[in-house]
UniProtKB/TrEMBL annotation:
The gene is LOC106759504. Residues 558-585 form a coiled coil. This is Protein EDS1L. PANTHER family: ENHANCED DISEASE SUSCEPTIBILITY PROTEIN, PROTEIN EDS1-RELATED. It comes from Vigna radiata var. radiata. InterPro entries: AB_hydrolase_fold (IPR029058), EDS1-like (IPR044214), EDS1_EP (IPR041266), Fungal_lipase-type (IPR002921). Keywords: Coiled coil, Cytoplasm, Hydrolase, Nucleus, Plant defense. SUPFAM superfamilies: alpha/beta-Hydrolases.
Length: 617
């Protein structure tokens, strides 16, 4: 948990970090209307690096586009991975920062310069100080999306993002998605202990509106203004930290498993900031020591607890320091990186609540926590963050065991059931299940319900973010979802129509499709980077067969469903060509044949051609 070279642990050497820090501050100090970032190819002792350094803005209207927190949904066309896949929930992002990056993306040679840098095969680093750091984050995510998504056969070196005093820019989905994609390690954020900027967006604009203009002027390197009005600085610091306390207290209650109904009531009436940290945070305690934290829940707690006052009389001094530290990263890192006094806060659930001289590692960690001014309460919050992470891993172990104990045998039974229907009965398993004439049909229904229970438990955990962030990106579970959906969803559709639920509830796909199929379909679509959701899949086409048969059989106008029929024909050909579906699955099934027999001659001929080699069709 303690010691070791920082460069070896995070993937970037110390000399690179120092140089990148200098370039970040250079961009921030030399910002012009026309120069929103600088691109340099730099030679450092450890190699050649392509560095993109972004300038920031001290215009409050670019931080808070609207009240109270200025957030909006992320543009998923640029950042398709920044969402919760199963929940189909897009990340929230600061609208002002997003608009600024959109301008950089569309109005500058950014894309072509990144393409050139990536093509050179050297390490690319995006960096920025203050709100310039937010641009570096967007640039890194875009590059990861563009060049390192799973569909790419040739992948370059992953880019790094190194920020200094970065504000928070997005909600919890930034952390969730970056960990799921295994990108979190590429984002490295340096934060000085009292720097106010990483905490600003935890406060609503209304609480700092009267002072933010003056404070931003103090923070702007183009203004040679000293902090003459300590009252404004103290007021600003107090307001930001008061709101930070609200956010972190609410988060701590959740971490500790509070079931108090008052917690939910408060959340409904008090509009808390949506912004959350993500990536690797490196806290500089001001004494030359660097503390590395990768747990985003723990980082949020540290943003509050590291800036606490031991005495109210300290307020004017600490408030001034919180502003001055924002411009002090170059000097601080020059000292700290040279000293190599690094502590890694891992296994948070085992953090010491006090010093224990019996173990040197424990003593080192405890001293580091003391150096950040962490109280016993703060340490308990960090422990709770570690316990939550550990509990998510236990939850995954639990459902893995349940899958092996229950789902594997049930899937095997249904595979055999499907084969017996097609081979022995000469009919499809869809219609056999729908009719429910024999004992094995009944048993198939029992297995369907067992599998529904297993998968519904998985989905409920995902909805509550109770599984590791990496879960939905794991190939093993994506494949399990494919197999489950293709084998079992036809039985759900058969059961739905057997009980005539379509007549009172409506179409299966729009009104009744269970989340267990929608979630697992989205996993696959994301893994394949499908540009948009597919309305009918190889597992749900039976619902379309039923709907089309009902429409045509009732003598309604065929022209109104003609395109749907033709799309189904194209899809069946595609699925069978790609072995996602076997022709025997539907060609001998009475439900499919009933639709086939009432189709117009032209459409019937197309299906006949598709099934020309199927014996008995």
């Amino acid at each position: 948990m303690a010691g070791g070279s920082l460069g070896d642990n995070i993937g970037l050497k110390e000399d690179v970090i120092k140089r990148v820090c200098g370039l970040a501050f250079k961009a921030h100090k030399h910002k012009t209307q026309d120069k929103l970032y600088f691109y340099e190819k730099v030679q450092i002792s450890s190699g050649t690096y392509h560095v993109f350094s972004f300038s920031g803005s001290w215009d409050a209207t670019e931080w808070f586009v609207n009240k109270p927190y200025g957030e909006t949904k992320i543009d998923l066309t640029l950042f398709p991975s920044l969402r919760s896949i199963g929940n189909d929930e897009a990340a929230l992002v600061n609208q002002g920062f997003a608009k600024r990056f959109d301008h950089i993306f569309k109005a500058t040679p950014f894309k072509s310069e990144v393409n050139k840098a990536i093509g050179d095969g050297k390490q690319v680093v995006f960096t920025g100080h203050s709100s310039g750091a937010a641009m570096a984050v967007f640039a890194t995510f875009w590059t990861l999306e563009e060049y390192l998504n799973p569909t790419k056969t040739q992948k370059p070196k992953p880019p790094f993002c190194v920020t200094f005093g970065s504000p928070l820019i997005g909600n919890h989905i930034f952390s969730h998605a970056s960990r799921r994609e295994n990108w979190s390690r590429y984002f490295i954020h340096f934060v000085l202990r009292y720097d106010i900027v990483p905490r600003i967006l935890l406060a609503p604009l209304s609480s700092i509106e009267q002072t933010v203009g003056s404070i931003f002027q103090f923070l702007n390197p183009k203004f040679k203004t000293s902090i003459q009005d300590s009252t404004k600085a103290a007021e600003f610091f107090s307001s930001v930290m008061r709101n930070t306390a609200s956010v972190t207290s609410h988060a701590a209650c959740i971490l500790m498993g509070s079931t108090n109904l008052l917690l939910e009531t408060v959340a409904n009436f008090v509009d808390l900031s949506p912004y959350r940290p993500f990536g690797t945070y490196i806290f500089c305690n001001g004494n030359g020591q660097l503390i590395v934290v990768k747990n985003s829940d723990a980082v949020l707690q540290l943003l509050f607890h590291t800036a606490q006052l031991s005495d109210l009389a300290e307020l004017p001094e600490v408030a001034e320091v919180s502003i001055l530290q924002h411009q002090s990263y170059e000097a601080e890192l020059e000292d700290s990186l040279g000293m190599q006094n690094i502590v890694y806060l891992e296994q948070l659930e085992q953090l010491p609540l006090s010093a224990d001289g019996s173990d040197s590692d424990v003593a080192t960690i405890s001293a580091a926590l003391d150096g950040l001014g962490l109280s016993t309460r703060a340490r308990l919050c960090l422990r709770a963050a570690g316990e939550l992470q550990k509990q998510k891993q236990k939850n995954e172990e639990k459902i893995n065991k349940e899958f092996e104990d229950k789902a594997v045998a049930s899937m095997r039974y249904l595979e055999n059931y499907k084969t017996s229907c097609e081979v022995q009965k000469g009919t499809g398993y869809y219609d056999a299940f729908k009719v429910q004439k024999e004992e094995n049909d009944f048993q198939a229904n029992v297995k369907r319900l067992v599998l529904a229970g297993v998968w519904d438990e998985v989905i409920e955990m995902l909805k509550r973010y109770e599984l590791p962030d990496e879960f939905e990106g794991k190939i093993e579970w994506i494949q399990r979802g494919i197999n489950f959906r293709r084998l079992v969803e036809p039985l759900d559709i058969a059961n739905y129509h057997r009980h005539l639920k379509n007549e009172d509830t409506g179409p299966y796909m729009s009104r009744a499709r269970p989340k267990r199929y929608r979630y697992t379909q989205r996993w696959l679509e994301h893994a394949k980077r499908e540009p948009k959701a597919v309305p009918i899949t190889e597992s749900s086409f039976w619902a379309e067969v039923e709907e089309l048969h009902s429409w045509i059989n009732s003598k309604k106008a065929f022209d109104e469903v003609k395109e749907r029929v033709e799309q189904l024909q194209r899809d069946l050909k595609k699925w069978t060509d790609e072995n996602e579906l076997t022709k025997d699955t539907f060609s001998k099934d009475p439900s499919f044949i009933r639709l086939y027999e009432i189709l117009p001659p032209e459409n019937k001929a197309n299906i006949t051609a598709l099934l020309a080699n199927v014996k008995g069709f």
